[in-house]
Design goal:
Blueprint lengths: L20 H7 L11 H21 L4 H9 L4 H10 L4 H10 L7 H9 L2 H13 L27 H13 L8 H15 L5 H20 L12 H6 L9 E6 L5 H9 L5 E4 L18 H10 L3 E4 L9 H7 L1 H14 L4 E5 L9 H10 L3 E5 L5 E3 L8 H4 L1 H14 L14 H8 L15
Length: about 450
């Protein structure tokens, strides 16, 4: 094997199941190592022969007349008995079976030829003994087929032609009676041989589908820390359309109390909450109620065992929800959201209590168009399935234009100066900011000498 440091090797292994009935039936015919008649076959034939002798002793007095009639027609006793056994004692049906099977009755000419014995018989015996080894005796439970030459007119067939015909008949294998299991095994083998060949292009497409599935599974290997789409391999192979369909929940807090909000989540056993509320140009989110600020929600979710993560969609620097959702960052956020929903009950959060008054409708449209299901949760715990194609409100459609114009004014210094409200200057707001955990900011300082 060559040394491999990266990539993937696909190994296709063709195997034969051990416990299939077909293999068991095949092994009753031949030994898998030597391909000789197996011991189960010998025992089966021996049991069949014993059963046949017992049936002959039991049924011979009953079928004596029918057996005698078939023998008078020229059929051998063993062939006549087998046909009668198959036809359940019906002599006419047995005679028809014998004729269909190719058992030709002996004629007076054949009997006379057997008794005649002459130069041709001696010559045939000498030739057959020198060309072929001794023929073994018949297998128990099988019926022997006569190799005598069919009756023909002596005037039309020469001795050489007759000799050639007899030699060809002697070389034909003797017909053997097979059990039901042997016949079933041979039929299944013939069906496999006669099966139509598979189109190579279909095999290539099938293996390619397997390869894509393995690649997708590798791209979804994530420990839940950081961002799922931070890996270049995941960004290359993962997309919202390729992921398995999942069900996500859409929730909005509005003016709900903290208790009512988390009871709403508890109604649907939500264990993962993604905060997709848009932020301002500074990357900050200002909630109408302190209980729904980022720091407060993070602490409340941690206390209740709910995974909380903020990944805003529609911030001002991305020019609103419609523009942000079309970007790679917005699509990567939705992929991570679907990845979480595949494993746990996941919901995404909006600011308004009603979904059609919030930017959640844009997020829900993208998820549903990709094949996923979105359920909007009302304040009473009931749900409404999202149907794509809803017309967006004017403030959402004109959001990108408004934010671009606001950015130009800000750059030109024409934007109004943001002033803090009385509520933000209160002692409660200052204490809340001071109680926030310290955030470490990694920076790089260049000092010119």
């Amino acid at each position: 094997m060559p040394e491999i440091s990266e990539g993937r090797i696909t190994l296709v292994v063709f195997f034969y199941p051990n416990n299939m009935q077909k293999k068991g039936m095949w092994q009753t015919i031949t030994d898998p190592e030597t391909m000789a008649p197996s011991a189960p076959l010998g025992r089966m034939l021996h049991d069949e022969q014993l059963n046949l002798e017992h049936e002959k002793e039991m049924m011979a007095p009953q079928w004596e007349q029918e057996l005698s009639a078939l023998q008078q027609l020229g059929f051998s006793p063993s062939d006549a008995w087998t046909a009668l056994r198959t036809a359940a004692g019906d002599a006419d049906a047995a005679a028809e079976l014998l004729l269909l099977s190719g058992a030709v009755p002996s004629s007076a000419a054949e009997v006379e030829e057997k008794q005649r014995g002459g130069r041709f018989q001696k010559r045939l015996h000498a030739t057959s003994s020198s060309m072929s080894p001794p023929t073994p005796g018949p297998v128990p439970g099988t019926s022997s087929t006569s190799t005598e030459l069919p009756p023909t007119e002596a005037s039309t067939v020469s001795e050489d032609e007759e000799l050639a015909m007899r030699l060809s008949l002697m070389q034909e294998p003797e017909a053997q009676t097979m059990s039901d299991a042997e016949v079933a095994a041979l039929v299944m083998q013939l069906e496999e041989l006669e099966a139509p060949e598979v189109d190579p292009s279909l095999l290539v497409a099938q293996f390619q589908e397997y390869q894509d599935k393995f690649t997708l599974d590798d791209a979804e290997q994530w420990n839940g820390q950081g961002d799922l789409m931070h890996s270049p391999f995941s960004r290359e192979h993962l997309s919202l359309e390729k992921m398995d369909p999942t069900t996500l929940y859409s929730v909005g807090h509005g003016d709900l109390l903290e208790k009512d909000f988390f009871e709403m989540l508890q109604c649907h056993s939500v264990r993962v909450l993604y905060d997709l509320r848009p932020t301002d140009f500074r990357g900050e989110f200002h909630a109408r109620h302190q209980r729904f600020s980022l720091s407060a929600l993070r602490g409340q979710c941690r206390a209740r065992g709910i995974f909380f993560k903020s990944m805003p969609i529609g911030r001002e620097s991305a020019y609103g929800t419609l523009a942000h959702i079309r970007s790679d960052e917005g699509q990567h956020t939705l992929v991570e959201l679907a990845w979480q929903a595949k494993r746990k009950r996941t919901a995404f959060l909006g600011s308004q209590e009603l979904w059609n008054e919030d930017n959640r409708q844009v997020i829900a449209d993208e998820l549903v168009k990709a094949g996923h299901q979105v359920l909007h949760v009302r304040s009473d715990g009931s749900t409404e399935q999202h149907v794509p194609g809803t017309q967006y409100p004017d403030w959402l459609v004109r959001e990108e234009e408004r934010l671009k114009l606001l950015e130009k004014k800000r750059q030109a210094g024409e934007a109004e100066k943001v002033s803090k409200s009385r509520l933000e200057r209160s002692s409660e707001a200052v204490a809340s900011r001071l109680a926030r955990p310290t955030e470490e900011v990694a920076g790089h300082l260049d000092v010119g000498l």
